[in-house]
UniProtKB/TrEMBL annotation:
PROSITE patterns: ABC_TRANSPORTER_1 (PS00211), ABC_TRANSPORTER_2 (PS50893). The keyword Nucleotide-binding applies. CDD domains: ABC_FeS_Assembly. This is Fe-S cluster assembly ATPase SufC. Pfam families: ABC_tran. It comes from Candidatus Kaiserbacteria bacterium RIFCSPHIGHO2_01_FULL_56_24. Belongs to the ABC transporter superfamily. Ycf16 family. InterPro entries: AAA+_ATPase, ABC_transporter-like_ATP-bd, ABC_transporter-like_CS, FeS-cluster_ATPase_SufC, P-loop_NTPase. The keyword Nucleotide-binding applies. Keywords: ATP-binding, Nucleotide-binding. GO terms for molecular function: ATP binding; ATP hydrolysis activity. Residues 2-237 form the ABC transporter domain. It comes from the Bacteria.
Length: 237
């Protein structure tokens, strides 16, 4: 479980998030929506401890009953948090297999990592040859986002934050990613999906939909709430 209390975030003198509070429960999928500039991506990076963002002294981030507000990103990752990249970078000379073997370290041997990667790659419909190529080099948008999902699945975090995993992908890749996420959700995982669109929700049913506007949490509701927003827009919130 991830609890956020009175989170206020600034870059320099500009405040981007103002007094955000919410409890993200285990076993649930949350969707965070909002217009451009509402603070959604900033929230994701602040939760992960990105040093570019300064937190107010009253801000509290609590993971599994432990305060992690001042923990570095790598410590949060070690505690079971994962944030996907909105625009995954290419790593020349480093394959996803090499990256994951290094990330997993001594927790799994090389054969176990390779077997797990192959299993999830098949479910995500990632061609086998991409696994040994330089990560994301020359990959399509959909292939890059699938690779993000593959890395998350192998690392098996307890809190998975996906920043616009549905952006820049075609409908087939979108369906594959959504269905993989639906199968990936368990009673022990918290999934937070940040998105501009509702199209991924045709294939993935969230437990709660949160709406941010001008850096604040302004509304939330059940999975049907996303459709209501699509019809009426954000102006009335």
């Amino acid at each position: 479980m991830l609890t956020v209390k009175n989170l206020s975030v600034a870059v320099g003198t500009k405040k981007i998030i103002n007094d955000f509070s919410h409890t993200f429960k285990k076993g649930n999928v949350y969707v965070i929506m909002g217009p451009n500039g509402s603070g959604k991506s900033t929230l994701a990076h602040a939760l992960m401890g990105d040093p570019r963002y300064a937190l107010d002294r009253k801000s509290r981030i609590i993971l599994k009953k432990e305060v992690i507000t001042r923990c570095a990103p790598e410590e949060r990752a070690a505690r079971g948090m994962y944030l996907s990249f909105q625009s995954p970078l290419a790593l020349t000379g480093v394959s996803v297999l090499q990256l994951l073997r290094a990330a997993v370290g001594k927790k799994k041997d090389a054969l176990a990592v390779r077997t797990t990667v192959a299993l999830y790659a098949k479910k995500l419909r990632i061609p086998a040859d991409l696994l040994s190529r330089s990560l994301n080099e020359g990959f399509s948008g959909g292939e890059r986002k699938k690779m993000e999902m593959l890395q998350a699945a192998v690392l098996d975090p307890s809190v998975l934050i996906l920043d616009e995993i549905d952006t820049g992908v075609d409908v087939d890749a979108l369906k594959t990613i959504a269905r993989f996420l639906a199968a990936f959700r368990t009673k022990d995982k918290t999934i937070i999906l940040i998105t501009h669109y509702t199209r991924i929700l045709k294939y993935l049913a969230p437990d709660r939909v949160l709406v941010m506007k001008n850096g604040a949490l302004v509304a939330e509701g059940p999975k049907t709430f996303a459709r209501d927003i699509e019809k009426s827009g954000y102006d009335k919130l």
